[in-house]
Design goal:
CATH architecture: Roll
Distance between the termini: 45 Å
Structural class: alpha+beta
CATH class: Mainly Beta
Helix content: 10-25%
Largest sheet: 7 strands, antiparallel
CATH topology: Pnp Oxidase, Chain A
CATH superfamily: Electron Transport, Fmn-binding Protein, Chain A
Radius of gyration: 19 Å
Number of helices: 4
Amino acid sequence: MGHAGAAAFAVRYLGNGPVEALPRPELRCVREDERAPVGPAEFRRVLGNFASGVTVITAPGAEGEPGPAGFACQSFASLSLEPPLVCFMVGRTSTTWPRIARAGVFCVNVLGAGQAGLCRAFAVSGADKFAGVAYDPAPVSGSPRLSGAAAWIDCTVHAVHTGGDHLIVVGRVDALGADGPQEPLLFHRGRFARLAGD
């Protein structure tokens, strides 16, 4: 089957009602006695050329916890329209992720161009990240919705998958909104950036 035949098959497959999961491909991990095909420094240097938006993922504090949880995240993406799903990636060693997992809900706060300081505040570990930060509860989950964010997406944890040294968290979107057109905060080559003017 050539490329055209494969494409036609995919169109027929995807056009016939709900999409069923395909069998998982066999994955082969790099053994401890093998050299990784790409070193971490080179991986980071090259992938840094991909500009990404910046978000803060927040969740309400679970019972017995001191307050809400949150962390800065640039690995966020929309995933599906039907049903509406988004995803973000979080390091397995994150101390914030277990708190979000216990809450079972989260809000993605898409940061605007003037919110680099807010991003830095949520990128630190061990501090009270919400000190002096204005927010209100997202309408469904009650997760902190940060004031001034360009957009917010209120979610329930739908699935969690492993991805190397990270976890891939899929969220079902329950509510969302945007506060009008606003330039995004971007991250590119290890620093914050803005869109160039027309």
